[in-house]
Every structure is written in C-alpha cells, then in structure tokens.
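Example record

The entry below shows one chain as it appears in the dataset: sequence first, then structure tokens.
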Amino acid sequence: MISVRTENLLKRIEEELSTITFQELKGIDGMTKNSLREIVLVSDRKDLMRSYLLNIE
C-alpha cells in the first residue's frame, strides 16, 4: 500500500510540476526538477514515478 505522503507527492507532482521549487525536491534522492519532468513525460500512466517513489520511501 502506498503511503499518504507518497500519494500526495505523486498528486502534487502531476498537478503542479512546473511550480514545484528545487528546495522542495532537494530531499528526493538528489533528483532535479528536470529529471522528475522527464519521468512524468516518459510515464504518462505514472507507473515509473510510483515505482521510484515506493523504492525510496
């Protein structure tokens, strides 16, 4: 089961990707905003994003 924190992060990334600040992303395993955007674009079904976030949770 996916945690509420991860589910909220997924939702926020999906809805507001362009407005998330680098500071907010800093704790996500050193990923940059561009890397997250790339993951979202590659995975229109969010499978890759969900998988990644579950692995670092």
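Notes for this example: The mean pLDDT is 66. The chain has four helices and no strands.
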